[in-house]
Structures are given as structure tokens and as C-alpha cells.
Amino acid sequence: MTEDAGKTLGSADIVKLLDLLPHRYPFLLVDRIIEMRGDESCIGIKNVSFNEPQFQGHFPGKPVFPGVLIIEGMAQTAGALCVWSQLADKKPPSKVFFMTIDNAKFRRPVEPGDVLHFHMTKLKSRRNMWWFRGEAKVDGVLAAEAEVSAMLVSE
User: 132: exposed, middle or buried (C-beta count within 10 Å: 0-12, 13-18, 19+)?
Assistant: First the structure.
């Protein structure tokens, strides 16, 4: 790992995400992370496909990606950033536990074929706690927003 790795990472593909997060299909809700800047911000991408299991019941005839999964995708993106920053600082990887969701708002439905961009920005961190503000966008249009927090636990 280079000295600059802790400051900027061009992207984390699915193979790297599988190293950073414990989630697996069908609950891994981030396909790639781009523009990761240290532990300050990043953008995660989720390609929404009609083949995903939640569309069998949400909703037949009018598939809508569940809002709770949008928030989870934001949290996974932020969690990957937390773990990446520990690796960059040569600390052992940690598990990330979702702690809070605040000020969640849903602005437009997300449908199969959409590409979600999870824009996550660190608000603060203290010891093993991290707070982020997130926006989920489709084609640059705000679909959802929330503040989330996480706790890192050493393995």
C-alpha cells in the first residue's frame, strides 16, 4: 500500500468490497466505490436490477427499490470507507456495526434499471464511532438522504 493510499483511492471494485465488508449477495448493496478520499468522503454505486429478490414482492406490477435498502447501501458505503481508512493506517480491519439512522427522507422512487450513487461524507469520528451524511442520487437527482452512524469493533 502506498503512502497516498490513505488519502485517495480511485475506486474499490467488487473484489475489494468483499474484503472490506462482511455482506454477501443478496445483502451486499454496493457494487463499486469511486472517488474515495481518505476517511472523509466517497461515492458508492449500486446497479439496481429487476432480477433482485426484493422485486418479487415490492411491488408486483410496479417494482420500487425499498427505501430501507437505499439507507443500508449508504451505510455499507460508509462502512467500507471506515474499514479502508484503518487498512491505510496499517491498523487491523474491524467489523462495522450500523448504529443510528437520523433525518431520513425519500425524495423519488428508485426502479429497476436505475444506477444509485451513494454520496457519503464524514461528519465526525471519535474513537470507534463514525457519523456520516449521505445522499442517494439517480442521474444526479436526489432520491434519498440520511445521517447514519457506525461503530467499529476489533476482531
Answer: buried
**Rounded to whole angstroms, how far apart are CA atoms 41 and 31?**
17
Q: What was the pLDDT predicted at 9?
A: 57
Cα 90 to Cα 84, 112, 119: the distances in Å are 10, 39, 25
- Could you tell me the residue ranges of all domains in the chain? 3-154
Residue pointed to by grid coordinates 451513494: 118
- Record the cell numbers describing residue 72, joined without a space: 443500508
Describe the chain by its helix, strand, coil percentages, rounded to 5: 25, 45, 35
Q: What is the pLDDT of residues 77-98, one digit of tens each?
A: 999 999 888 887 777 767 889 9
Helix intervals (H) in the chain: 14-20, 67-88
Q: Residue 71: left if φ>0, alpha if ψ -120 to 50, beta else—which one? A: alpha
3-state secondary structure of 75: helix
Band the pLDDT of 5: cuts 50, 70, 90.
very low
DSSP SS3 for 123? strand
Specify the amino acid at residue 73: G
What architecture is the 3-154 domain classified under in CATH?
Roll (3.10)
Catalytic residues: 58
